[in-house]
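STRUCTURE:
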């Protein structure tokens, strides 16, 4: 009650009496039910949206794992890069050539993720939907599952706009990158030129004294692919990836579909614990008992531990990619929560969390826990983007640092909007607008896009917002 009152800038007594008029007797420190919250906020002209975190709250908090229960797990890898630079070829090559000891033939099924065992016995899990859009869409839903990103760059081409985007998206997520300089079999390939272009973006590869690993490869012919995978393992070692396999499983939904013969088919990636046939699973707002479990080769399995992708049969619907899943001791608990979530979702109709806008900025700063202002900047020419970027970063104060998490030339794209949603960033366009699809997505995700044609106007707005003085945009 107290918190809600202060958020709405009214006195707690007013909230208490609003509750009273709804027939709910409350005190200052009481927690309000979701539907009461909605009605009371509405009284004062506010709209409440529940974030995924609020929905999760209905699920009891998990105990943190004890250090001695943790064991190493395989790294989870996403491949990104500019179109035609070889993402699919790279994933295909690994899928087809790396077979579990004793098995012949590669993986033929597409289930959204696959796990390979290398000759030295170590394992790597690849997410099989390449590209930064899928990666960031998951992140926008609160699911960060990737440990390492492979950025594929064709060495017979240049660092392209989508390469830059992919790098920004990986960096915004704080996920380490490994650069695959692809197509080195081509006579006109020039990997040094790419290293040079990367260094101009402050990305220095190891050969040049930096700390970003890179590997020349040919995804088409398989040259040096082993070395690339070794570098993935080396990076994984540095990350010390661990999980506790000895508990009820939880993880993330990778994809889901309805199969005529088998019912709902859901691919999930176990993050910790072990998933078993017969477990009761809650995934997003769907639930069910695991009737069967299959690996990426279509083979039945009885259990799956951390970092292992599995396809399960038995859910009562298709959850959304990025939904978290969890196993429950008994079916009733899973069912109750699933129903509750469905209700909450219906109430809020859209499921997005409230994103940052410039108007909101001053308020969040006043609340005191706001430390970083993320900005995505797109403009019509390189020079003005650079100038604006420098000046915006110059607005950083001791309390708040202004980070340009992505900047580029060209109109505002869907992937920019997704990045803004995932990183709670402000979108600024300078002499550019959002494309139609990007605009639709921004409306849906409630991301504000500010466009300017005068540099100082943009600077002034951000500055004023940081000082909490921006008058709301009409
Ligand atoms: P994606 O759009 O990034 O997924 O790129 P693809 O994997 O579809 O590759 C685009 C084109 O480049 C295809 O025609 C591939 O055969 C070709 N290609 C990919 N990797 C290599 C390589 O290492 N060498 C050569 N010569 N061609 C490649």
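SEQUENCE:
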């Amino acid at each position: 009650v107290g918190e809600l009152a202060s958020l709405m800038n009214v006195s707690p007594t007013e909230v208490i009496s609003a509750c009273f008029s709804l027939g709910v007797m409350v005190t200052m420190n009481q927690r309000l039910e979701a539907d009461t919250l909605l009605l009371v906020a509405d009284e004062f002209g506010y709209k409440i949206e529940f974030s995924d975190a609020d929905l999760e709250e209905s699920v009891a908090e998990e105990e943190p794992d004890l250090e001695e229960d943790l064991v190493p797990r395989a790294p989870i890898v996403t491949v990104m890069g500019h179109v035609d630079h070889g993402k699919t070829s790279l994933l295909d090559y690994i899928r087809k050539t790396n077979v579990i000891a004793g098995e012949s033939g590669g993986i033929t099924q597409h289930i959204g993720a696959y796990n390979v065992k290398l000759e030295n016995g170590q394992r790597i899990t690849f997410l099989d939907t390449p590209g930064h859009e899928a990666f960031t869409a998951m992140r926008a839903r609160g699911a960060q599952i990737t440990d390492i990103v492979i950025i594929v760059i064709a060495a017979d081409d240049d660092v392209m706009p989508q390469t830059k985007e992919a790098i920004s998206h990986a960096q915004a997520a704080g996920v380490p990158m490994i650069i695959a300089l692809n197509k080195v079999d081509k006579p006109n390939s020039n990997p040094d030129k790419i290293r040079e272009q990367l260094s101009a973006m402050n990305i220095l590869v190891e050969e040049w004294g930096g700390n970003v690993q890179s590997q020349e490869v040919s995804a088409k012919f398989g040259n040096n692919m082993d070395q690339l995978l070794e570098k993935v393992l080396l990076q994984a070692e540095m990350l010390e990836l661990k999980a506790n396999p000895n508990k009820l499983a939880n993880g993330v939904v990778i994809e889901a579909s309805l199969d005529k013969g088998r019912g709902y088919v859901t691919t999930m990636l176990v993050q910790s614990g072990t998933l078993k046939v017969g477990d009761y699973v809650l995934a997003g707002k769907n639930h069910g008992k695991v009737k069967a479990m299959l690996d990426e080769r279509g083979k039945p399995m009885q259990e799956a531990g951390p970092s292992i992708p599995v396809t399960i049969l038995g859910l009562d619907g298709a959850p959304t990619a990025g939904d978290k899943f969890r196993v429950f001791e008994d079916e009733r608990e899973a069912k109750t929560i699933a129903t509750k979530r469905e209700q909450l979702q219906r109430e809020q109709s859209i499921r997005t969390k409230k994103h940052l806008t410039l108007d909101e900025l001053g308020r969040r700063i006043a609340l005191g826990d706001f430390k970083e202002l993320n900005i995505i900047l797109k403009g019509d020419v390189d020079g003005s983007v650079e100038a604006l970027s420098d000046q915006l970063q110059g607005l950083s104060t001791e309390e708040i640092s202004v980070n340009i998490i992505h900047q580029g030339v060209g109109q505002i794209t869907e992937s920019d909007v997704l990045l803004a949603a995932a990183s709670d960033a402000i979108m600024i366009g300078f002499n550019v607008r959002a494309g139609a699809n990007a605009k639709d997505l921004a409306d849906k995700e409630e991301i504000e896009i500010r466009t300017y044609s005068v540099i100082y106007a943009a600077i002034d707005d951000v500055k004023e917002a940081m000082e909490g003085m921006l008058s709301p945009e009409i």
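REMARK: The chain is about 35% helix and 25% strand.
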